[in-house]
Design brief:
Elements lengths: L7 H11 L8 H47 L9 H5 L1 H22 L1
Helix pairs in contact: 2-4
Length: 111
């Protein structure tokens, strides 16, 4: 049914697409190869930068956790309802840090 309703523009387009391709001595393949290479570079740059950034920031983050644990240990016992929160503060901070790093990693990989 669609073949019967072709107008002059459709026939002209069909004849243009039916023509033999123009010889380009591999130019098209070189351009596509370059585009694919750049796409892979863009895909890999952000994850590599993320891994390097986490590697660089890991030691200062651990130091911050240690300082937070020392500060929490020096707080008065009645400052929190229970001593459990103070004793588990490094675990909470570490878990929160891992959660934030994981969340940012997933967002970065989605883009």
């Amino acid at each position: 049914m669609a073949d019967r309703n072709r107008d002059a523009g459709d026939r002209l387009l069909e004849s243009m697409l039916a023509a033999a391709p123009i010889p380009d001595d591999g130019f098209s393949e070189r351009v596509l190869k370059r585009i694919r290479r750049r796409a892979w570079i863009r895909r890999l740059t952000l994850p590599i930068a993320l891994v390097l950034g986490v590697a660089v920031a890991a030691e200062p983050a651990v130091e911050l956790l240690k300082i937070g644990a020392r500060l929490a240990g020096s707080l008065p016992a009645d400052w929190f309802p229970t001593g459990l929160v103070v004793s588990q503060l490094p675990l909470f901070l570490g878990g929160g840090l891992l959660f934030v790093i994981g969340w940012l990693s997933v967002r970065a990989l989605e883009e």
